[in-house]
Amino acid sequence: MAGFTKNAIQDYEVIAEHSYNPRANALVVRFLDGSSYTLSIADLPRKYRSNKPQWDRARLSQHKNALIVYGRGKRHDIPAHVIHRYGKPL
Fold first, then answer.
1. Rounded to 5, what percent of the chain is helix, strand, coil?
2. Residue 10 to residues 6, 33, 57, 64, 80: CA-CA distances in angstroms?
3. Is 62 helix (H, G, I), strand (E, B) or coil?
4. Is residue 6 one of the residues assigned to a domain?
């Protein structure tokens, strides 16, 4: 594994694009490896939910391995491994 470093981000961790579906109250996330997930807000663990979140304004982190959501002045990062674990594959 030449060139592999401890902090290397794999393709399945890099978020290529995301969108919010207000009707289903869910995030749709596509990763760089081509896999896509539907993440229902109700399925998230409590520490990733916030009071009056702005899911439609979710942003990507600098390294594109987490979604950043603000709610009531607090920042919540939803990492890629949480999306893989609690999301439903498309």
1. 20, 40, 40
2. 11, 9, 25, 11, 11
3. coil
4. no
Q: Report the distance separating Cα 52 and Cα 56, nearest Å.
A: 12
Pairing of the two strands 66-71 and 59-60: antiparallel
Q: Is residue 52, in this structure, part of any structural domain at all?
A: yes
- Any bridge partners for residue 17, and if so which? 30
- Which residues face 89 on adjacent strands? 37
Beta strand ranges found along 22-82 (DSSP E): 26-31, 36-40, 59-60, 66-71, 74-79
Looking at the 3D structure of the chain, how many domains does it have?
1
pLDDT at 70: 87
pLDDT in tens, 2-52: 454 555 568 888 999 999 998 988 999 999 999 999 998 888 888 887 777
